[in-house]
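Q: Structure tokens for this one, please.
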Amino acid sequence: MIVCIGQVLTGEQIAQVNALLQKTPFEDGAATAGWAARGVKHNRQLPAGCAALRTIHDLVQTALLGNETFMSAALPKAMTPVLVSQSLPGMGYGNHIDNAVMGAPHVRTDLAFTLFLSAPDSFGGGELTIDEPQGEQTFKLAPGEMVLYPATTLHRVQPVTSGQRCVVAGWVQSLVRDPRVREMLFELDAVRRALFAHDGLSTEFDLLQKTYSNLLRLHAET
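A: Here is the predicted structure, written as tokens:
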């Protein structure tokens, strides 16, 4: 399941992040790639542990934990520290799959997200392309918007041909490992919220609430 989420960050927050990026030096991003992906990763990233990255991490994590769509789709148990990636003309990230486990303590990477910081008309190329059974899906979203997708997929960033592409990337371990169950829970949550908004408390809502809760209880890994 791939979910696009709008307005994760406000315009004011995007301006705050971009101001930090303008005064913080980047380094070669290949250092954070797995051994197989290192040869196809051509970008720059904020240095791990720098003050700007810590500020951006806190801002993004707070925004995500307060975003109903993200919480419903991801059901997060743990998240990795975020990365901030910058791609200039000629840079991109070839076909790869993300590491299955990242960080210390270890986080199983069920889901990945890319949060766009640069306006799509400010750079050429740079699309995130994800391989799905039904074919490729390509994303180039507005600043503050995010795509949440399975980290199990092959994906790539097309070469940037002009301008500058900046994004925040991160990974999520879900309470629910099985993506099929996560999708069912996401859809059930959407229905129960719509039903409650339309009718308030009702017998039908209570039954749907019971089904959602018991399905989550059956599959959650705490």
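A few notes: The mean pLDDT is 95. The chain has two domains: 3-174, 179-219.
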